[in-house]
From TrEMBL:
The species this protein was found in: Lymnaea stagnalis (Great pond snail)
SUPFAM superfamilies with a match to the protein in the record: P-loop containing nucleoside triphosphate hydrolases
Catalysed reactions, semicolon-separated: GTP + H2O = GDP + phosphate + H(+)
The keyword Transport belongs to this UniProt entry's keyword annotation: no
Superkingdom of source: Eukaryota
PROSITE patterns: RAB (PS51419), RAS (PS51421)
NCBIfam families according to UniProt: small_GTP
Tagged with keyword Hydrolase: yes
GO molecular function: G protein activity; GTP binding
Family to which the UniProt record says this protein belongs: Belongs to the small GTPase superfamily. Ras family.
Database matches in InterPro entries: P-loop_NTPase, Ras-related_GTPase, Small_GTP-bd, Small_GTPase
Protein name: small monomeric GTPase
Amino acid sequence: MEDKIHKLVPNGSCRDINIVVLGAKGVGKSATIVRFLTGRFIGDYDSQMEAIFSTNIPIDGKQYTINIMDTVAYVPGKELKEDPVFWADAFMLVFSLTDVSSFKAAQQMVDYIRRMREDDRMPILAAANKSDLVHLRTVSSADCEAWCLDQNCLSCEISASEDPMSVKTAFGMLCHRVRVINKKREKLSWTLQRPAVAAKLHLRQSLKNLAEKKLWRSRTFTF
Ligand SMILES: Nc1nc2c(ncn2[C@@H]2O[C@H](COP(=O)(O)OP(=O)(O)OP(=O)(O)O)[C@@H](O)[C@H]2O)c(=O)[nH]1
């Protein structure tokens, strides 16, 4: 599996969505993935390595292949592996709403992802897991929502153990976001390829260069 992970290439197909699931230790990453893929809850899932699982689902009426990577637990202060970060079209950051340190770890991971990918629109969903343990909550919905809004992340509360629908909805929201962003990108690249638009952009750039040249000359001659 290590080999497979190292040979990961970014997704080129518009009908495949690569999702990397990240989170601190014991937050329920594997339980969430297994629930989504099989509909079942497995209480103790022993995973020490990354693994990729695929499934086909319809999104907005079209069939997609979703490749989901389960990762090893994030250790605060340690950098994430680069390959999964560049392979992903989207990230699901799982934390436990009973464990504030796992929420802080999720925040660090978002910073890291944004820095590495240099893309503010990279789809990220923060999933507050274990909502069945709401009486043990230490992360408030308000804090989570405010942070997600600030970071342009989607957010939701899920329970891998008790609420299969919440898990399905979380993956659905994330895939929908990927589709919307990909559609916008496709439209933009199509527009930029049109000769009239390319000529206009070229003209604009030439005028900008000319203006900068003039400015430089006027500054040089003032001395
Ligand atoms: N109450 C409750 N327990 C959960 C839920 N999801 C997972 N768990 C429990 O949390 C523990 C960790 O679940 P895992 O799915 O192994 O978590 P993980 O993040 O993959 O763990 P690591 O791979 O060790 O980092 C297990 O004992 C699960 O039974 C949930 O929604 N509610």
